[in-house]
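Q: Convert this sequence to structure tokens.
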Amino acid sequence: MTEARSGDTVKVHYTGRLDDGTVFDTSAEKEPLEFKIGAGQLIADFEQAVVGMEPGESKTVMITSDDAYGPHHDEMVLQIARHDLPEGLDPKVDQRLQVRRDSGETFVVTVAAVSAESVTLDANHPLAGKDLTFDIQLMEIA
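A:
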């Protein structure tokens, strides 16, 4: 059988879990994820885990936070007054919002906390600071 190599387009099924077993993403009950190994579309260690696998083969790989979405940066968490929010916005914890800087640049934040007076926004990736475990099954080498 042929093994997956860098440059190959592959299809995989996967389940991503956190250390506590919480599933944060899965391709179960969906089409397999298709990507080109080495193209930088996914976390590099995820792509590299597929190298050497044969269709039908499964493996589990743990990727540290530093090699996934990086550490959680406290300086990317800010608290703003509720009266500074757009009128009519009723933020909820875990809600994702798009924020525009004065420069016109936009970025996504997650609502981390809400009180009567303020809202805490987190601009870190939701998986920053977390080690990730993936169960991967190679379905096909295209």
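The domain at 74-122 is CATH 2.40.10.330 (Thrombin, subunit H).
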